[in-house]
Fold each of these.
Amino acid sequence: MRETKSSSLYNLFAISHQKGIEKSPDYHTHFHYEIFIFHAGNCKYLIDNKVYDLVPGDIILMDGSKLHKPFVTGDKRSYDRSIVQFSLEWILPVLEFLDAANLLKPFQMNHHSIYRTGDEHLKRLVGLVEDMEKLTMNGPLLEGENELKVKLMELLYSIRQYREEKLISSDDIYENNAYIQQIATYVQEHFNKKIMLEDVAKEINISKSYMVHMFKEQTGQTIMDYVMQYRLRQSIHLFNMYPDWTIKQISSECGFESEAHFSRFFKRHIGLSPSLYRKTYKTRGDKEL
């Protein structure tokens, strides 16, 4: 596995290229906008309640707020992708000054958009990403920040020139997506209550055994994995929205069986206890899951 990362501006901008992967990442969210470029391999991409069966050249634009993860199948050594992440606050003033804020629409409409590119167009996009990576290779380059913004805008303009006829939906590329959507939607509507797999299967009118097998096969994780990750994401949201709520209130509101269970799960996945997370991030709101 090979991964290169560059993050000269830390919370403002980051770029990385990864070739090969040991295992698919867990569901996560973040507070950056993201451009995901898929170069090679076999990969399904899950965003909120949608599943996309990617092909090389696909590009995902997302705001990062919804649970998402790649699920790599087949030879994991062949997986190859690039990611550009940037803060909305960092680039928006420039876009507004140039009356170009509409370049961010694909990130904001339904929280994500996905495009299927052609070889020549992809080559230009990858070239722009490589230019940005070079600008951030030598540590903090604040004097090059404007050049970095220009390159990012070139990338966004280039995607816009191509996107009108190449926007694709999950329904176009994955026939079982309806079941995944129904399961995820059920979880999102009932996450604060006890969820029984039998009830989910009854709701979407398929057998429990088929539902469990299909979800694991197509997402790489169990339904209960998704339930717990969604509850975790909601707890982060509540920490940020209601700083005066007690940890017990938040754990109960998010459907955890007890405050102790919530605290153990939170620390295992975030690396901090809920109380320490709140103390550390209450004024920043930028912790990535």
Note: The chain is about 45% helix and 20% strand.
Amino acid sequence: MSDRFYILLGWWLFVACAGFFLASAWRSGDLLALFGSALFMVANISFLIPMYRRNEERRHD
């Protein structure tokens, strides 16, 4: 398997963790943790965007 596969797997696992943190904060009613978890989720997704954009750019070449 390629390095890219493991990088994407790692980022998707971070997104999954952020989802669990988000659900846990929601259940406990902790607004600070909820806000932090939401930011963590957005940050992880923002790191994934260039990985997929780069893939789309290669297809057009």
Note: The chain has two helices and no strands.
Amino acid sequence: MLDIKNITISYQDRPTVKNFSMSLKAGEIASLVGESGSGKTTVIRAVLGLLAGGGKVTEGDILFDGGSLLQNTPDQWRRLRGTDISMIFQDSGAMLNPTRKIGEGFVEYIRTHEKMSKGDAWKKGVEMLERMRLPGGDNIMRSYPFQLSGGMRQRVGIAMAMTFRPKLLLADEPTSALDVTTQAQIVRQMMELRDEYGTGIIIVTHNLGVAAYMSDWIVVMKDGEVSDSGDRETILHGNHSDYTQKLLDAVPSLGGKRYV
């Protein structure tokens, strides 16, 4: 489904991500892990064509369903984003307009991608919110973002991202700044979406525990390059680099046992 071929991403002719490659099949979950500034978010923004500040892919290619994303026109990107490829941002609450109720933005988003009445779009939004285990979807649609908790706002973001059952979901630190109980709920819901829709997921995280729990494939990044990559068992228990071992050693232990 997705094939990233040896890409280099540069800002003002200075490469920040070098020689990055990975593949993802339908229904697979891959994690990009590493310290802040290692290039994880830059990679998924390149996949969605949303590199900021003049960033561009200067080498390699990104193929989605066999076609090059780098050749997309603005109109092709508009049709693709939010439908076949969706993204959950690090803080979904920050991406919601604070002056508009959830329902206003959700209905507009749905009607941008599908021809339907406002009433039908409202019902679809309520249905997606309740799929995310948000009780009283109609009340949430009538709420402002500031009236919801961080976990609820994050679920709204996931609900919007999954509205059109995308083939690929990009998640940028979707559990950061949430309490551990809410983190666990968000992770389980993302895995249920994979199971229900066959969606492929790339999750960016600094939490190796989250990556170990949910991923089929783990890519460890350092200084804009791939330090390690492999299936979960290989990264956690097989041969890996010294840097990966340091990340594993940094995972807190409980009663002398480390849960990765």
Note: The longest strand covers residues 14-24.
Amino acid sequence: MDELLEILNELHPDVDFEAQESLVDDRILDSLDIVSLISEINDRFDVAIPAQEIIPENFNSAKAIYALICRLEED
């Protein structure tokens, strides 16, 4: 989780990602942020995020993103 928070803080250092629960809904993360985030996750966690998993529910919070990463690492 710490590595994910590091990635998120590089995107938006002014956001408290541990407390924020609506990153996409509140437009804190936009489509370009999501693309950058997916690329970083692929590189650092060695997981590929399939297109069908790129939905707001999976990116609305750091917890949701981390749950997605964990799920993909298991597969």
Note: Residues 31-45 form the longest helix (15 residues).
